[in-house]
Amino acid sequence: MLASMKRTTVKIPDDLDARLRHEAQRRGVTIAEISRLALEAYLGVGQVRRHLGAAGAGRSGRSDVSERIEEILAAEVAR
């Protein structure tokens, strides 16, 4: 957690508030934590997340993906 934090008020629609509260409860974290993670992801700050091209391998039309998954993932990580 960051040493210094600012409090900010954000006005959101009721349906978004309900979804936010549900997600926080589902994950067992605070609404503030979900909000921080969402803002970091949107603004591209914090932990850098890399998307693996192999994530869509299930839609490739290939029938051997489950047998080759280690090979596919290793190739993606090596990129």
Task: Give a nutshell description of this structure.
This protein is mainly alpha-helical. It contains three helices and no strands. It has helices at residues 14-27, 31-43, 65-78.
Topology:
Layout: H1 14-27, H2 31-43, H3 65-78
Helix pairs in contact: 1-2
Radius of gyration from the CA trace?
A: 18 Å
Strand content: under 5%
- Overall pLDDT: 81
**Main pleated-sheet profile:** none
Q: Helix coverage percent of residues?
A: 40-55%
Give the ordered list of helices and strands.
Answer: HHH
Silhouette: elongated
Number of strands: 0
Give an overview of the whole structure.
This protein is 52% helix and 0% strand. The chain is built from three helices and no strands. With 79 residues, the chain is mainly alpha-helical. The longest helix has 14 residues, at 14-27.
